[in-house]
Design brief:
By secondary structure, this protein is mainly β. The chain is built from 5 helices and 32 strands. The protein has helices at residues 4-15, 48-52, 59-63, 129-132, 431-435, and strands at 44-47, 69-74, 78-83, 86-87, 91-95, 98-99, 118-125, 139-145, 154-163, 168-178, 182-193, 209-221, 225-239, 258-273, 278-293, 301-315, 322-337, 347-362, 365-380, 395-413, 416-427, 437-440, 445-448, 456-468, 472-496, 499-520, 528-541, 554-565, 569-581, 597-610, 613-622, 647-655.
């Protein structure tokens, strides 16, 4: 039989099939996997299909369309998620039920995930250390993998996307089949792009990239037990843009300098059902092999990061209206170097955490609370002569942290929900912050680590008010986040190897802001939708200086129509999106201000039926007016290089 979660999702799909508004989704990134309407914590949920219909070139570009989520980008090939102004090691990424580890301390280190074979994404905006431990200080991106086929069926799927700006192509083929107890799927994807073109017609040299992605999974389930084994291989060949606007070419083969990245992700997700309780055990192995090449196939930088994760949660029997979960979580991680240059030393990291959380529900009210203890130990090897570039002293550090959360949800009226959450989070310093001693090519700075750094500890208050009826939805999210011992870099005034020297130091900081929006679906004009949202975040140190990499305020408006044309076009839609990004004048001492800009995007699509053949099609024109603009979080901004110009995207999806 199907897993309990799948059964619940099917019931909800049936229940809401005829509703004129959005479905009430099962949220799996939170502890109790409840429906969104029952959840104490507000979690943003979006299917990958919804993101793809916006015509974005990459997964992270699609995520950046979710209110409160942005990206630090290096051209089109490298993007790092930003949640309410926090990024890097302050945001955790989960895929296949396990945390992804890929040296995410670097701004030039991307997400390392392909959207093919991913069903949906859930975004926790705020500290989630209670469930996920260190590094979930700023939030969590939780990717739900593609579902297996229904019992007794075989399905084949082919997806093709073409991109005008980069002359890019993304091809994906998937097969899956299931019996009553066994399930199997496999999917292969190839993605290739030339240098992206700016609004003035010039291409940005060496922003080209190629990606190969392979996913497979096998599962078994019955009334007592469920087990799913999944494997994902991702191979990225990324150009590193250093020359700016140089030789103009549409060649898709990367030039030097470039990155070569191999990611292996193996996960085993098990659920054992007892009479009145259940046990979830998730095991994960992640291998991240990262190389950088300057002018030949000999890697000057070669880092291998191997990570083993485990996560066990026991759902105790219900006691009246009270549910409880207790669990343990841990990680063993080794980093080794084999290139000419070292950014960080060889090291071993061990995490261990124990937690408990409970929820009490009565009527339309719910209170949820939890407590957790974590320990992280980091041991690194000594290398070189102390004081010289590329040398490291041995490190033996241990970091402890207690964290708690408390949340309350209630219905103020029939369709009006209030959520109030207070949660603490923490982040132990990463290896780069503790040990760096050399030029970090991603920042063009000589960075010196500080082995005496303390753990970052934050406390965030979130308030969510939302009204949702059949034809109208309105939401307001507000947050205040105070971070003790916020880690950042500061110039010393010295120069080494023609690079400014930066030290890692700490200061208390605060971030505050929120999102507000509405979705109007008027009756009897059931074919018309209007959505608007505004997001803002401000980040400051205690001394009044602004934090770096804070996204500019954004106002997003979309008008969408739905239609059907006779018997050959079903689920048709047309959309007009206007995205206005405001001036960013609140900058740190190492940033420049960014001007405002407005982008116009068009979308058109639906399901075409030709006899017994049916396929989905979507056509998007992004930045249709070919606006010359620069995002505040673009890493090419310091070189005066704007973002991508007009991009027309054609997508076809066949269920064979």
């Amino acid at each position: 039989m199907l897993q309990a979660q799948e059964v619940q999702e099917k019931k909800q799909d049936t229940l809401h099939k005829d509703k004129p508004f959005t479905l009430d989704e099962v949220i799996v990134s939170t502890a109790f996997k409840k429906l969104q309407s029952q959840n104490v914590m507000k979690v943003e949920h979006s299917t990958i299909k919804e993101l793809q219909q916006k015509g974005t070139a990459t997964l992270i570009e699609g995520l950046a369309t979710i209110p409160g989520v942005s990206q630090v980008s290096t051209g089109t090939s490298i993007g790092k998620p930003v949640i309410r102004g926090l990024s890097g090691n302050r945001v955790l990424v989960y895929s296949q039920g396990v945390r992804i580890e890929n040296q995410q301390f670097g701004d030039e280190h991307g997400l390392g995930l392909n959207d093919a074979g991913v069903e949906s994404v859930e975004v926790i905006k705020g500290p989630a250390s209670l469930l996920y431990g260190s590094d979930a200080l700023g939030g969590v991106l939780y990717f739900n993998p593609e579902k297996f086929a229904e019992a007794g069926t075989f399905k084949a799927n082919f997806n093709q996307k073409l991109f005008s700006n980069t002359l890019g192509s993304n091809s994906s083929l998937g097969l899956k089949t299931s019996t009553e107890n066994w399930k199997f799927l496999v999917r292969g994807t190839y993605n290739t792009h030339s240098d992206y073109k700016m609004a003035d017609g010039d291409r940005v040299t060496n922003t080209r990239y190629q990606e190969t992605d392979f996913k497979t999974g096998i599962g078994y389930s019955n009334s007592k037990f469920s087990s799913v084994l999944r494997y994902n291989f991702n191979d990225l060949d990324l150009g590193i843009p250093e020359e700016g606007i140089a030789e103009q070419t549409t060649n898709k083969n990367t030039a030097y300098p470039k990155q070569g990245i191999f990611n292996h992700l193996l996960s085993l997700n098990n659920t054992i059902f007892f009479e009145k309780s259940k046990l979830d055990v998730d095991l994960g192995y992640i291998s991240n092999d990262r190389s950088e090449f300057e002018d030949s196939e000999v890697a000057v930088l070669h880092m291998k990061l191997n990570t083993f994760n485990y996560n066990a949660k026991y759902h105790l029997p219900k006691f009246g209206k009270f549910e409880t979960i207790v669990g343990i979580q841990g990680m063993n991680q080794t980093n080794t170097n084999s290139g000419e240059e070292f950014l960080i030393p060889d090291a071993v990291t061990n995490d261990f955490g124990v937690f408990g959380t409970g929820i009490y529900e009565w009527g339309s009210n719910a209170i949820q609370a939890g407590l957790r203890f974590d320990n992280r130990k980091i041991n690194s090897d000594a290398r070189g002569i102390s004081g010289e570039e590329g040398s490291f002293e041995a490190l033996d550090k241990s970091f402890d942290s207690f964290n708690a959360s408390l949340g309350y949800k209630t219905n103020l009226a029939q369709d009006l929900t209030l959520r109030l959450n207070v949660a603490s989070g923490f982040r132990a310093p990463n290896l780069a912050e503790l040990t760096s001693n050399g030029v970090h090519e991603g920042t063009n700075r000589y960075e010196v680590g500080n082995p005496n750094l303390k753990t970052e500890q934050n406390l965030q208050t979130d308030l969510n008010l939302e009204y949702k009826s059949g034809h109208f939805e309105f939401f307001v999210n507000g947050f205040y986040n105070h971070i003790n011992n916020y880690i950042y870099t500061s110039p010393t005034g010295a120069i080494l190897d023609d690079n400014e020297v930066f030290d890692y130091i700490q200061d208390n900081a605060k971030l505050f802001g929120g999102e507000i929006g509405l979705h109007f679906h008027p009756h009897p004009l059931d074919w018309l939708h209007y959505e608007t949202s505004f997001e803002t975040v401000t980040g400051k140190k205690d001394n009044g200086d602004y934090l770096p990499l804070i996204p500019a305020n954004n106002w997003n408006n979309t008008i969408k129509t739905e239609f059907k044309i006779k018997n050959w076009l079903e689920a048709g839609y047309a959309s007009l999106n206007v995205s206005s990004t405001f001036n960013q004048n609140n900058v740190s001492g190492f940033e420049t201000k960014t001007n405002s800009y407005t982008l116009l995007n068009l979308g058109l699509g639906g399901t075409i039926k030709l006899g017994k053949t049916a396929f989905d099609i979507n056509l998007n024109a992004n930045n249709i007016l070919d606006k010359n603009y620069t995002s505040h979080l673009s890493r090419l901004k310091t070189d005066g290089i704007p973002n991508m110009g007009r991009n027309i995207v054609l997508g076809l999806n066949f269920d064979i």
